[in-house]
TrEMBL record:
Organism this protein belongs to: Faunimonas pinastri
InterPro entries the UniProt entry points to: Glyco_trans_2-like, Nucleotide-diphossugar_trans
PANTHER family, sorted: GLYCOSYLTRANSFERASE, POLY-BETA-1,6-N-ACETYL-D-GLUCOSAMINE SYNTHASE
Domain Glycosyltransferase 2-like positions: 16-111
Domain of life: Bacteria
Family, similarity comment: Belongs to the glycosyltransferase 2 family. WaaE/KdtX subfamily.
GO molecular function, one term: transferase activity
Protein name: Glycosyltransferase involved in cell wall bisynthesis
Keyword annotations: Transferase
Matches recorded under Pfam families: Glycos_transf_2
Signal peptide: none
SUPFAM superfamilies: Nucleotide-diphospho-sugar transferases
Gene3D superfamilies the record matches: Spore Coat Polysaccharide Biosynthesis Protein SpsA, Chain A (3.90.550.10)
């Protein structure tokens, strides 16, 4: 996972960068190498790594703070509270901001604090073993640059999103790269874990789930392979779409077989 170090070493005044991590020694270094020049407050919230995550983070000058895992939203809210500045840039340990994105953030703050208090930017998916996104790569467009005095992460165990309310949200033009999958085997493990979490948080009607089950696999495969354009990824895109479709199907199947509450 290549880093994209900032060309300008001076930090952006009043900006903290924070990440949550556990056992990310093989990936977090690229993220920290990219962002360490943009902030004088780099924070990593570690939830009990047994690899070299803490050592790698400290090597890049991060303040590493331990906090037992409490769910995605609560963990990020804890991270918000540890930051020294009110303007926050949040990244995951597998999301590397491009040099262009960092330059855009610098330009945004050059005249002072921006008028908008929330900014989205695209996080483009990269397949295992690749160094850049495929043609027409899918992406998430999340609020990850924001003023915590105005909005914070939602207090949800599964979903980590910044609550913006009725405030205007700006859109940055540049992107980060998302190296979310170490391998396709790793992807399958992540999908199984996520399915368990969503089942524990959502309450779906069994009748609706039973009717949806036979259609779930083909619908989800079409969604990922065609609508999200994974056909442009060749054999990796085909495998990616199959795994996602199977995981969505298995989630509903597990719900139907779960004991009634």
């Amino acid at each position: 996972m290549p880093a994209s170090p900032s060309a300008d070493p001076s930090p952006v005044a009043g900006l903290s960068v924070f990440l949550i991590a556990k056992n990310e020694a093989d990936r977090i270094g690229a993220v920290l190498a990219a962002v360490r020049g943009i902030t004088d407050d780099l924070v990593v919230i570690d939830s009990g790594s047994t690899d070299d995550t803490v050592a790698v983070a400290e090597r890049f000058g991060a303040r590493v703070i331990h906090n037992d895992w409490v769910g995605f939203g609560p963990q990020k809210r804890f991270g918000e509270e540890q930051c020294r500045h009110d303007w926050l840039l949040n990244l995951d340990a597998d999301e590397v901001p491009s040099l262009e994105l960092l330059a855009e953030i610098r330009a945004l703050f050059a005249p002072g604090e921006p008028q908008a208090r929330f900014f989205r930017f695209r996080i483009k998916h990269v397949y295992p073993g690749d160094t850049k996104p495929r043609l027409w790569a899918d992406y998430h467009n999340y609020v990850r640059l924001y003023d915590r005095r105005v909005g914070r992460f939602r207090d949800s165990l599964v979903y980590d999103e910044v609550v913006t309310g009725t405030q205007p949200v700006g859109q940055l033009h540049q992107h980060a790269l998302h190296y979310s999958i170490r391998s396709f085997e790793h992807m399958a493990e992540k999908l199984r874990a996520y399915s368990t979490l969503t089942l524990s948080e959502k309450k779906k009607k069994r009748r609706f789930a039973a009717a949806r089950l036979p259609l779930e696999f083909p619908m989800q495969f079409f969604k990922y392979y065609v609508l999200r354009r994974h056909f442009s990824g060749g054999s990796k895109g085909f495998r990616f779409s199959l795994l996602y479709a199977q995981a969505k199907h298995n989630r509903i199947k597990a719900f139907l077989h779960a004991p009634r509450s």
